[in-house]
Amino acid sequence: MAREVELVIDDIAFGGKGVGRAEGKAVFVPFTIDGERVAARIVREKKSFAEAELVRLEKSSPERVAPPCPYFGRCGGCSYQHMGYEHQLHWKSRQVAQALQRIGKFREPPLQPIVPSPLEYGYRNRITVHVEDGVVGFFRRDLHRLIDIEQCPISAPEVNAELTSLRARRPRDGHYTLRARSGPRVFSQNNDAVAEKLAEAIAGLVPAGQTLLMDAYCGAGFFAKRLLGKFARTVGLDWDIHAIAAAEAGAGPNEKYFAGDLAGRLAAELSQADPALTTVIVDPPATGLQEEVREVLRAYPVGTLLYVSCNPPTLARDLAELGARWTLRSVQPFDMFPQTAEIEALAHLTSAASS
Ligand SMILES: C[S@@+](CC[C@H](N)C(=O)[O-])C[C@H]1O[C@@H](n2cnc3c(N)ncnc32)[C@H](O)[C@@H]1O
After folding, report:
1. Which domains does the chain have, with CATH numbers?
2. Residue 290 Cα, ligand 1 centroid: separation in angstroms?
3. For FRET with 7, which of 38, 102, 330, 347 sits at 20 to 30 Å CA-CA?
4. CA 332-344-235 angle, 5° bins
5. C-beta of residue 258 within 8 angstroms of C-beta of residue 244
6. Cα torsion through 292, 298, 304, 308, rounded to 10
């Protein structure tokens, strides 16, 4: 029979699981909150930690709230609906600080207050649902099986209307991306209000009188296009030819977008640029920067680097690996995905070239 343990939760790890200790070992328990005393059943045990499932709440946290979604706990999408929003924000900030300290080895990371989402629910402007044998929905937590979903409370009303009409059509097996509005089928920011706040924060960190913006991992140019007025010339780089085609549509003469070898093109541009008058934005996928891109940034420490990250551990690794020619000025988390464990963050770095 699986072993049951009693724990006091004293941490919430990146990914959303509460952490307690039993017999000197860290035990991760989903859907628990710091301060709670719980009985949990160990489901996986390793040398230094264990995974467990909540069996009973012996003492519950005042931060605990009733999750509004009937699928919460089974659906793989959300991790925090059982926790008040302010408390979610508190833990997401701490998780960014912990990643910077533990992985990045920044003793006192210059963390700015987290920017909340104006909408705690109904914010997602796009979801991908899967269809298999008549089931339309998302993958279950920890299981490669689908859970039938009628409505998703974190999605925008327009997305839920799309879901209702997809279900009514009895779709064939496959993956369907449902969007609040039509647009090119390329990466787009998920939470409109928070994405605008992120773009505003970036604009506020760009020094006056800049000549060149390199927008690396630019997608369809979400940041580049909002910053055109601040630069004499803008270059966007991404490997997705459809995203580059979308960015090129309606581009002005001072805007150029290239698909292909990101590190090579970045190096070619930066080697010719005036470092003091150049800003680089990087917005990589969750895997972070490739080593070649880090190498280019180490070789050409231009005035300003703005790193948009959707994964604190890879952000922390990359910031540490950028080396001594860069100075980390601030890291600001943004709550792009309330109720989920995801965290977006903007890091601001400068080099000697900025002065
Ligand atoms: C997080 S999205 C950012 C998009 C854009 N900044 C935006 O706000 O819409 C990451 C982008 O990086 C691109 N990408 C991922 N890996 C890449 C690579 N190795 N080289 C070039 N682009 C890459 C993807 O196509 C995607 O558009």
Report:
1. 4-64 (2.40.50.140), 126-179 (no CATH), 192-354 (3.40.50.150)
2. 12
3. 102
4. 90
5. yes
6. 40
Q: What is d(CA 158, CA 130) in angstroms, rounded to the nearest whole number?
A: 18
Give the pair of three-digit tokens for residue 117: 């989402």
137: which strand partners?
Answer: 130, 148
Atom of ligand 1 nearest to the CA of 195: 8
Residue 258, ligand 1, Cβ within 6 A: no
Q: Which of 188, 217, 257 to mutate to test the pocket of ligand 1 (most atoms within 8 A of CB)?
A: 217
- Taking phi over 0 as left and psi of -120 to 50 as alpha, with beta for the rest, 339 belongs to left
Global confidence as pTM: 0.96
Given this model, what pLDDT does residue 1 score? 54
Q: Which atom of ligand 1 is nearest to the CA of 287?
A: 16
Contact 156, 164 (CB under 8 A): no
Which residues of the chain, if any, have pLDDT below 70? 1, 355
CA 240 to ligand 1 centroid distance, Å: 7
173 Cα to the center of ligand 1, angstroms: 28
pLDDT at 22: 93
Q: Cα(41)–Cα(51) distance, rounded to whole angstroms?
A: 8
Ligand 1 atom nearest residue 281's Cα: 6
Report whether residue 189 contacts ligand 1, using a CB cutoff of 6 Å: yes
Q: Are 281 and 214 in contact (CB under 8 A)?
A: yes
**Whether residue 240 has its Cβ less than 6 Å from ligand 1:** yes
* The predicted structure's pLDDT at residue 222: 97
* C-alpha to C-alpha distance for 257 and 184, rounded to whole angstroms: 16
